[in-house]
Design brief:
globular; alpha+beta; three-stranded antiparallel beta sheet
């Protein structure tokens, strides 16, 4: 039975470590971690999560965009488990938009990210996949991918003046259009 895991908060050393590759996706411990991450993501109203955020320094992340109280205008997609992901290429276009993080509760930052990316990852079934992501979903991937490299979104801010509270974001800054 999947369980909700404790989310590591900013200051926990695991969030600053480079995560290690997963060598056998079929191990029961890896499959259980995936199930627990999915449960934690849904329960926490996240749109993405990485294994280091629950204290597990492995190259595993989940992208799961969906409208929720933290991101009311997020596009809907099926949760996608990505093991040992790689960023293969990216567009030259960089877009700044607001991000929050389950490991940095209560604040948002205006973060520059590539608008379109090409990635490669292994599924929970061991299949190698290449795909392109754009806009909000590409942003989620880049945010979670940073966690695998010991970074949080605050490291990408161009100015501390581009930080707001969740309250200000949700009540005054939520875009009225959905990013496709």
């Amino acid at each position: 039975m999947p369980q909700m895991l404790e989310i590591s908060q900013l200051g926990n050393p695991v969030l600053r470590q480079v995560a290690q590759p997963i060598h056998n996706v079929h191990e029961s411990s890896v499959q259980a971690l995936i199930d627990n991450l999915l449960m934690t993501l849904v329960t926490s109203n996240g749109v993405g999560i990485a294994a280091p955020q629950v204290g597990m320094p492995y190259r595993l992340l989940i992208v799961a965009s969906r409208p929720n109280p933290r991101y009311p205008n997020a596009p809907l997609m099926e949760p996608t488990v990505m093991i040992n992901p790689h960023l293969i290429s990216h567009s030259g276009e960089v877009v700044k938009d607001w991000e929050g993080c389950l490991s940095v509760p209560g604040i948002r930052g205006l973060v520059p990210r590539y608008r379109q990316i090409e990635i490669e990852y292994v599924t929970r079934n061991g299949e190698l996949v290449q795909r392109e992501l754009c806009d909000f979903v590409a942003r989620i991937f880049q945010h979670e991918y940073d966690h695998l490299n010991g970074m949080v979104f605050l490291d990408r801010l161009e100015s501390v003046r581009e930080i707001v509270t969740d309250h200000e974001y949700l009540n005054h800054l939520v875009p009225t259009t959905v990013v496709a």
